[in-house]
Amino acid sequence: MTVDSAGTAARTRDLSVTLDGGVALLEIHRPPANYFDEALVGAIVEAARSLDADSRCRVLVLCSEGKHFCAGADFGAGGGFGSDRVAVSERLYRRAVQLFRTEKPIVAAVQGSAVGGGLGLACAADFRVADAGTRFVANFARLGFHQGFGLSVTLPRIVGPQVAADLLYTGRRVGGEEAVRIGLADRFAEPGRQRETALAWAREIAAAAPLAVTSIRATLRAGLADQVEEALTHELSEQSRLWSTEDCAEGIAASLERRAPVFRGH
Questions:
Q1: Which of 23, 64, 108, 176 could form a disulfide with 202 if both were Cys (CB 3.0 to 4.6 A apart)?
Q2: Would you tell me which CATH number, out of the four given (3.90.226.10, 3.40.50.1820, 3.40.50.300, 3.40.190.10), belongs to the domain 15-193+204-256?
Q3: pLDDT 10s digits, 31-65
């Protein structure tokens, strides 16, 4: 997706990009849950790559339309995974790792929930903005399978290994205030003002010397994309193994039926 000279790209069905004052706003349009698939992740990557090459852009803000930031992958009917879940996920992860290879800072404005792979998408950003109603959920163990989207690398890097282990083992929800306290979110916004707060922060970054910012970022994130790529291979291997278990079938069914799962270790 290429931003035109007027500052706004032609919107696709699922993603729009607006560039103003050095800050590009990337907005996902799949409300209310904003589930992702290979096509949407690819669109985000292509937009970020295009903005890397655009000297007018200095910072990206990633946000979503509707109630939630991103509920991850949709495992229900019509979610696009079907019986070929491993192959679809492998293609999706190949696109996802490219997001970690982009050059300009990303601030994620997280409203509602960032769940599963949606948490992974939020953790691909440099920073996250939350409010009291934001919920971060690494719910993989509650669904019966291994975490993905590089969270094996990014989550411990952001909150530390002990807190990451707690969040991944339990799959519990983390509210906005706790998220700031443990470092999962970086700034706390007034209710419903995550986007405005993220944009204001992005403008602060955009006011700094752009060559210096990208250089500093490259140093701070050195090796991250390679680590994520390696982790994704392992994550998918473990996901593939666990997706065939009875516990995983129960976890996904319970989630879709909005009930507590009953796991038996099979």
A1: 23
A2: 3.90.226.10
A3: 999 999 999 999 999 999 999 999 999 999 999 99
CB 101 within 8 A of CB 64: no
